[in-house]
Amino acid sequence: MRTAVVTGGSSGIGRAIAERLRKDGHRVAVLDLNPTGEEFEYKVDVSDRTQVDAALAEIRAELGPVTILVNGAGLELYKRFHNIDYDTWQKVVAVNLGGVFHCVQAVLPDMLEAGWGRIVNISSSSAQSGQQFMSAYVSSKAGVNGLTKSLALEYGPSGITVNAVPPGFVDTPMLRRSEEKGLLGGTLEDHIQRTPVRRAGKPEDIAAACSFLISEEAGYITGQILGVNGGRNT
Ligand code: NAP
Prior knowledge:
Keywords: Cell wall, Oxidoreductase, Secreted. With about 230 residues, this protein is of the alpha/beta class.
């Protein structure tokens, strides 16, 4: 049994990951903007280092050193590039990439001390394909993939693996919000027909990949970007 932190763990993909890691036998703490009130959920904006450090101090005191981190918190933005003001761009990058920076730095001392760690970053298949009207989001997620590969090289010798899972088309509140606003580029059904396995992804599909990457037997896998996307952006 280890202590895991899942960011964005109160909704959608992050929530399924937190549930899966609990089933796998880990002690799980969640950092999220809007916690649902469950035990070991902390109200934290991952782009705010002071909040991240304060939550980590509490988590360590309650659950022990953190040796598993899944960065799932994410913020989407749909806007034509020439209409994005720089503050808005910075906000998306601060949450999606800066949040990973802060959380990884906050847990690394525990992992280095243990000589063992697992970090999984939830990026996005859009970083492989590009996505119109989502340049800030896609850029931040491409940054997450680059950071993942670099950290894998730096911390492999310390027993820490770092991988990314870019989801594609997973049925979550984020996806449903996009559909409601007509921003999906077609209906859910249109997308299902464009997906080789002919269904939308489930949050549990992403959680299963995370569970594997976190397991002992995945210790020789690091620096990888494991697409879980029904065959969409392979
Ligand atoms: P979701 O249901 O909206 O969950 C995202 C969670 O992150 C929410 O609980 C959200 O809180 C939280 N969050 C947002 N900003 C935060 C911040 N600054 N600090 C802490 N928590 C914050 O979306 P999802 O679809 O499960 O997405 C999970 C991850 O997968 C995201 O990183 C997303 O970019 C990525 N992803 C999803 C898909 C997909 O098809 N669904 C595809 C590619 C990538 P609030 O709800 O309070 O804002």
